[in-house]
Structures are given as structure tokens and as C-alpha cells.
Write a structure and sequence with these properties.
6-stranded antiparallel β-sheet; alpha+beta; 23% helix; 835 residues
Length: 835
């Protein structure tokens, strides 16, 4: 084959460094400094040497702790011999962080590099992550990067038509990608010569240059003197002068200029280490919670600043995002680090969650305190009527409920007191239900439940009356529970009294369609003693050894707003408690889970066989979705997964008709799934040994995820495709809680009900609203969720702005909205720079 270009092999000197893995972050911190010092020494000793390094977080560590060395690095960057790649904060797991988290890796990582080193990365660089989701090409292009280098999945895990290819995402974005043929480094010079010569032969066979990485890695180190002397020796040999000390930047620039004939791949880059999507439940649940809380904090902090001048907590929220991004590192998020490392992970998430909670509270208190809630006859505040509420006479107490999402949300609202009546801001009485509280304070152990409608990115005041009751109509489609049956106007749920499984789920609003092909919510126990922590070499977890059973069922809530049956089942020393709930007029079955897990080398899955033919499984991935084969392989997903297909649906006029039907599953903490034919299974927990790479197991090993954990999930049966199910919005609603503030009587400039955003297209949602990093405007980030083109109108009343925009399939758009209303709104990338 004819060779393109003069260089056959680009040798990439690097130092892969895991800041956390078999050590804690403090050791990684020290190793970064030592490795960077070593790299600077090599640059002085070998005039042709080029060093490549990624991760903005590492540079920040050096800047804050060794500023004199940071100055040297900056000089070498300016010379072009220290090459910065991978413009993310860290080398993250590329399946588990949310889409917006990837945007933040780029925003904070690239802007830090630009500000401190004068460059931004052009090459995405993630050589050790275990898999790469299919929307990454768009995320990379939105981040100022047009190429990507990775290693996993390796050739034995995924067949690619070529090691160099165009990688395309669902929206049509492309990056040039290169998969490493071998490791990103070497731990000794033995074998390095063979590796270089072997890679050169691959380049010759392919007709264009290849990259070959060298340098001691994992615990840092980088290129050694011996490495570089060997390379010098090889380059002196006859016919080997086409080997060059280089960088990924130089390699991709050369390839793009030469334009080799390479294939286009439109697929995800999976699968390696499939067990990592369900290890260490605590950190995965904390990640989901932190990602959504910080977005809520940004939105309401922005609104409080715009309307009332409350200072925006930029520094604190940036620090919170840095913690979350650091915890996205693949050996942290993947759950394969040592036990002690997760003490640090807990602290990082804890700080971020606390920062988010404080920002939310400050903003909401500022907003709610400015709402006009004064009632006639109130002269001054007094608590003569009640020790908890500020109600006077029977005037009611204002409760302000906020919605962070970009559409109106109807949801249950819990009031932490037993009350007689509730009205909305217009004075309309609402049905209510007394429910058990979490407290047992003498006889004070009851709360109140109502259903509310909260405007998009807005709020509504509800008036709560301690003693005054109102006549209300029976809620439409009232929920009820009796024995082992839950029912409303849309669903009927029958539980097996012996096992606690869902024996029958009937979709009454779709002609009495029987949703499940067998028992549902079946807690299957899987043997995984053959697995290491990562699940190396495995594709599936399907060796069932038992099921939870011996169930106890009890009606907790009989309706009419919510009916709940508690099911407690057991296996071995473990106990599974599921509170299965049905709201009035709802087609969603909601389940709150408390699991006390005591099994070792076991996995728990919840199984749902769906009554459809020719099933198709679709999973949420960061800022997108993907359809995967229903082959039983363990795969990652985000907040939701859907299985749809053809199914007989009774029709009173024509007997039966065949149409598309499906079941969506939403959760607030889990990321691992498998689908075999028509059976969907969610992985709840794994209990491998900490950081076990098929090691020598003895009685002193420690097992993961022992003890109590809590999470929730929702089942949504639906007619039509998954796009008709509302699953995307429901998933955000399930993971983004409404916020509440008890108030009292006061004058104010804000109304009792307000909407903060309006988007006309159902398939376009706004995920982020925040100040622009440059401080001269606002950022609104939206994305198309159904895979369908959309023309939409957007309105932001707080900014007195409205505009129209066209979205392509799965397209992400970031709008920069200038403070000056006369200046036009423009589209920018994740870095908040013009595309």
C-alpha cells in the first residue's frame, strides 16, 4: 500500500497518571508534581523530546502548590514542546457523568488552560476510560476539539474497520478518532523496541502514519532517560528515520492535511469493564444527586440575582463543580478504587451537595421573601395561633413551591404538618390526603399530601390552613389500595402475596393491555464470584442463584391521592423493602426501595418482562439516546431505559389490533442494565471485593456495598414509541425535586405565581441557565430529546427576551444572551465562545 506522508510513526511521550486508584488523591497530588518535574528534566536533557499531558485539574494542583514549576511548564507550552491535550477537568468515565457534566468538564477545563497556559486543547484525550458513549463527537466539537484518542474498547472487545476513522454522533457531528493498538505506556524498556517496530509495520500496512505511546504510567513517571536513548538509537538505524518524537496534536494535524481515505463509524465505543456501571452504589447515587442539585442552584441563584440583586455565588459553585468533575475520574466513578478512596469521594460530594443546598436556600429565601403574601387584617407577625405556622385567625400560611425545570410540572407536594385545608394561589381548594410522617413526635406523626402544578422555571404559592377545611371534589381517577391490589383510572397493579412480585400490570387507558409477560419487579440474585471488580473479560451477568421471596405485604396508604403497598422480601441475610405507589390519574407506577444488602460476590437485579414482540431497547446516554441489541449484555444507561415493540392491544370495535407498545423504566441512582429479548433488568447492587483484579482472595478482603441503601424507580407503560411516553421529562422530574419554602405575611413586589421560561417545542428542553463566565450576559443551554428536528420559540421573561431557533436531531445549543437587550442573542459552544 502506498504510504501517505513522510512520517510513519509518531512517538507520543506521556505519563498516564491516575490521581486515585490503588492510592488516595493526596498521593496522586504528590505524584503529579514529581512526574511533571521529571518531564521538565527530560525536556532539558533531550532537545527533540515532546511531552504530552492532559487534565486541567493536574495543572491547577501544580499552580497552587509549585508555582515556580508551573512557570517552567508555561514556558515549555509556549515553545510547543509541552503539549496540552484533553481539555476536560480530568479523564472521566465516559458513560456515567451526565451530558451537562461533560459540558462543564470542557467549560472549566478549557477556560482554565486558556487563562493559565494560553492554549486550549484541540485533541480529546481519554486513553484509559472503559468506554465512550455515542454522543461524544458532538460534545467534543462543542468543546473546541476536533479529534479524539482512546484505547478502550480494545480490538478483542470491539471490532473497528480501522484504527483511524471518522467518529460520528447521532446529530451528524464528526471527529477524527484514533484507537491505540497497545498500551498508553510502558513500565520497562524491555519490549519497547518490539512495540515501536510493530506499530511502524501497522502504519506501513495501513498506508498512513500511526501513533505509539511510551512512558511509565498509572502512577505517573513518564518517559525515562532509557526510553529516549532507545528511541535515538532506533532513529539512527538504516530505514528508521521516519520515526518522530511527536504529539497527538501534530499527528491529527498531519492526518487532516493529508486526508487519508478512512471509514466513518456511527456507533458507541463499548464495552470494557461492564461491572463498573453498578459498583459502589453510594458514590453513583451521590453523583446523580449532585449533578441535578448544582443545576438547580445555578438556575435559582440566577433568577434571584436578576430579579432582586442577590450576589451570584460563582466561586462556591465553581468549587462544587470541580469536586464533582474530579469524582468523575474513571477509576472513581467506575467503583474500582481502594476502599479508603471512597471516604474522600464522600467528602467531595458532600461539599458539593452542601454548597448547592446553601445556594438554593439563599436564592429561594430571597425570592419567597419578596412575594406579596400580605392578608387583610394582619397588623404584625405573631405566633399566637400555632407554634409552628405563622397563621393568624384562619387566613392560612403561605408555602412557596419552586420548579427548576423548563416545563410545567404536576407532582405530589408533601407538607410537613397535618392540616385541614389547602388552596392554590388563586384560592382554589385542593384535595388532600393525610400521610405518615418520618417523625414520631408524640401524636404528631402525620403530614399532608397535595397535588400541585408549578409553572416552568417558576413557582406558586399554596395557602395552608391548620383548622379550616374546604369542600373539594373527589380527585379524578382516585388511587386506591386494598389487599394486594393498587388501582386508579389508568392502571391496575396486582401483587403476588407470597412473593411480592408484580403478578399483573394492566394499562386500563390503552384497552386493558397487559403490560408484563410474566412476574415483574422480580429481585434476582446473580452469582458473580467469577468477576473481578471491573468485570474484566465479561459481557453478561446472568448466573441466577436465587430470588428474594417470603414476602410480607401491607397497605400503607389507601388513597385517594396516593395509594401505597409495602412489600418486604428476603434472601439470605438481606432484606428488600419496596413501597409501591400509584398516584391519582397517573400512568406511572412509583417504587421507593430500601435495601439492606449482606451478600458477597452476588449481584441483585430487578427484572421486568414486557409483553411485546420484536423488542427494541433504547437507553439514555449523556445528552442523547442509543438503541442497543436485546442480547442480554450488561450495558450502561443514565436516568431511563425503554423497551418497546409490537403488541396486541384490545380494541372494543375491532377485536384486537397490533401497534407499538412499550415500558419505560426511570430511576434516581442506578446506571447498569441488561435486556434479553423482551426482559428488561436493572442492576441494583454488586458486591465484589474492593479493587480486586482477580487477586489472591483471603479472609481479610472487604466487600463493596454492604448495608443499607435507598433509591427509587418508576415504571411507565405507554402506547406508541418511547418518544410518546414522556419518559425524558418524567426522568428529569424524578431526579430534580421541587423546592419548598414556608413563608409568612409580608408585602412584596413579586406575584404569587410566576413562570420563568417558555419553550414551544415539546422535544426541546433547557438544562442549564447561568451567568456567562465573562460576566456580560447569560447562558441558556437546550437540547433536542426525541431525535427529531424542531423549530421552537423560546421566552425568558426575567430577561425580557424571546427568539426562535431551529434544532437538528439530538442537537445541543448554547445561547449567549447579552445583558444589553439591544444586542442580539448568539449561539456559542460549551466554552461560551462563538462557534
Amino acid at each position: 500500500m502506498t504510504m501517505i506522508g513522510d512520517t510513519k510513526l509518531h512517538l507520543i511521550g506521556n505519563a498516564h497518571l491516575d490521581p486515585v486508584w490503588l492510592w488516595r488523591w493526596q498521593e496522586g497530588y504528590a505524584e503529579i508534581k514529581a512526574t511533571f518535574r521529571s518531564a521538565l528534566d527530560r525536556l532539558s536533557e533531550f532537545p527533540d523530546f515532546v511531552f504530552t499531558s492532559a487534565c486541567a485539574a493536574y495543572y491547577k494542583w501544580v499552580e497552587e502548590n509549585a508555582p515556580e514549576m508551573f512557570a517552567e511548564i508555561k514556558q515549555r507550552v509556549a515553545e510547543g514542546r509541552w503539549v496540552v491535550t484533553g481539555g476536560w477537568w480530568i479523564q472521566p468515565d465516559c458513560n456515567l457523568p451526565s451530558g451537562e457534566s461533560f459540558a462543564r468538564h470542557s467549560l472549566y477545563g478549557q477556560r482554565y488552560l486558556k487563562d493559565k497556559l494560553g492554549v486550549t486543547a484541540r485533541v480529546g484525550y481519554n486513553v484509559d476510560s472503559f468506554g465512550h458513549h455515542g454522543m461524544l463527537p458532538q460534545l467534543l466539537r462543542q468543546s473546541g476539539m476536533d479529534s479524539y484518542v482512546f484505547m478502550r474498547p480494545e480490538a478483542h472487545e470491539k471490532t473497528l474497520p480501522h484504527d483511524l476513522f471518522w467518529w460520528e454522533s447521532e446529530d451528524g457531528s464528526r471527529v477524527m478518532a484514533f484507537r491505540l493498538a497497545d498500551s498508553y505506556g510502558n513500565w520497562a524498556s524491555n519490549g519497547m523496541e518490539d512495540k515501536i517496530l510493530r506499530h511502524r509495520e501497522r502504519a506501513m500496512a495501513s498506508g498512513h502514519a500511526f501513533m505509539s505511546f511510551y512512558g511509565v504510567g498509572n502512577h505517573g513517571g513518564g518517559p525515562t532517560v532509557q526510553n529516549l536513548k532507545l528511541i535515538d538509537e532506533l532513529r539512527q538505524r538504516s530505514g528508521l528515520d521516519d520515526i518522530r518524537l511527536s504529539s497527538p496534536n501534530q499527528y491529527f494535524a498531519e492526518m487532516m492535511q493529508l486526508g487519508p481515505d478512512i471509514p466513518v463509524v456511527k456507533d458507541e465505543m463499548q464495552m470494557h469493564a461492564v461491572g463498573c456501571y453498578s459498583t459502589h452504589s453510594e458514590s453513583k447515587a451521590a453523583n446523580r444527586r449532585a449533578e441535578h442539585r448544582l443545576l438547580t442552584a445555578e438556575k435559582f441563584s440566577s433568577l434571584a440575582h436578576l430579579k432582586l440583586g442577590l450576589p451570584y455565588p460563582s466561586e462556591a459553585l465553581n468549587r462544587a463543580w470541580e469536586n464533582v468533575m474530579f469524582n468523575h475520574f474513571h477509576d472513581i466513578m467506575g467503583g474500582c478504587s481502594i476502599k479508603e478512596a471512597y471516604d474522600d469521594v464522600r467528602e467531595f460530594y458532600g461539599e458539593s451537595l452542601s454548597i448547592g443546598a446553601k445556594a438554593i436556600n439563599s436564592a429561594l429565601q430571597k425570592l419567597s421573601w419578596s412575594i406579596h403574601t400580605m392578608k387583610p387584617g394582619v397588623q404584625s407577625l405573631s405566633k399566637e395561633k400555632d407554634w409552628q405556622l405563622w397563621e393568624q385567625d384562619d387566613l392560612g400560611t403561605p408555602l412557596v413551591v419552586f420548579n427548576p425545570l423548563s416545563w410545567e410540572v404536576e407532582a405530589p407536594i408533601g407538607i410537613n404538618k397535618k392540616v385541614a385545608g389547602v388552596t392554590d394561589s388563586a384560592g382554589r381548594p385542593l384535595p388532600l390526603q393525610t400521610v405518615r410522617a418520618s417523625r414520631t413526635n408524640t401524636s404528631d406523626k402525620w403530614d399532608t399530601l397535595i397535588m400541585g402544578r408549578i409553572p416552568a422555571f417558576g413557582y406558586q404559592v399554596y395557602w395552608v390552613y391548620r383548622d379550616q377545611a374546604f369542600e373539594t371534589e373527589q380527585p379524578q381517577g382516585a388511587a386506591r389500595a386494598e389487599g394486594h391490589v393498587l388501582e386508579n383510572n389508568k392502571l391496575r397493579v396486582e401483587l403476588d402475596p407470597a412473593t411480592g412480585y408484580i403478578r399483573r400490570l394492566v394499562d386500563k387507558s390503552n384497552g386493558g393491555k397487559v403490560v408484563l409477560a410474566g412476574d415483574g419487579a422480580v429481585p434476582m440474585v446473580i452469582d458473580e464470584s467469577h468477576s473481578d471488580t471491573w468485570g474484566h473479560g465479561l459481557k453478561q451477568y446472568r448466573d441466577e442463584v436465587g430470588r428474594f421471596g417470603s414476602a410480607e405485604c401491607k397497605v400503607l396508604e389507601a388513597g385517594p391521592l396516593r395509594a401505597t403497598i409495602r412489600v418486604i422480601s428476603r434472601y439470605g441475610d438481606s432484606e428488600l423493602r419496596q413501597d409501591i405507589s400509584l398516584l391519582h390519574d397517573s400512568s406511572d407506577l412509583q417504587v421507593k426501595v430500601r435495601l439492606d444488602w449482606r451478600e458477597r460476590h452476588r449481584m441483585l437485579k430487578l427484572a421486568f418482562p414486557v409483553q411485546v414482540e420484536q423488542p427494541r431497547a433504547v437507553f439514555e446516554i449523556p445528552y442523547g439516546f442509543i438503541e442497543r441489541p436485546t442480547n442480554g449484555n450488561e450495558v450502561p444507561g443514565q436516568m431511563w431505559v425503554d423497551i418497546s415493540g409490537s403488541g396486541d392491544r384490545p380494541n372494543t370495535a375491532d377485536g384486537t389490533e397490533t401497534s407499538t407498545y412499550g415500558l419505560a423504566l426511570i430511576n434516581d441512582a442506578k446506571y447498569g442494565y441488561d435486556v434479553l429479548d423482551n426482559e428488561l433488568r436493572m442492576t441494583v447492587v454488586r458486591s465484589p471485593i474492593y479493587a480486586d483484579h482477580y487477586g489472591e482472595r483471603d479472609e481479610q478482603v472487604e466487600y463493596m456495598d454492604q448495608g443499607v441503601q435507598e433509591f427509587t424507580y418508576v415504571l411507565t407503560p405507554h402506547a406508541g414509541s418511547w418518544q410518546h411516553s414522556g419518559v425524558v421529562r418524567k426522568a428529569y422530574e424524578w431526579n430534580t425535586p421541587l423546592q419548598q419554602v414556608w413563608e409568612t405575611y409580608h408585602e412584596g413586589d413579586l406575584p404569587q405565581r410566576a413562570e420563568g421560561i417558555a419553550i414551544s417545542a415539546d422535544n426541546v428542553i433547557a438544562v442549564a441557565f447561568k451567568p456567562a463566565e465573562d460576566g456580560d450576559g447569560w447562558i441558556l443551554r437546550c437540547h433536542e430529546t426525541y431525535g427529531r428536528e424542531a423549530e421552537t420559540e423560546l421566552q425568558l421573561p426575567a430577561l425580557n427576551r424571546s427568539w426562535r431557533s431551529a434544532f437538528g436531531r439530538c442537537e445541543i445549543k448554547t445561547f449567549f444572551i447579552p445583558v444589553n437587550e439591544q444586542e442580539p442573542i448568539i449561539e456559542v459552544n460549551f466554552l461560551e465562545m462563538k462557534n
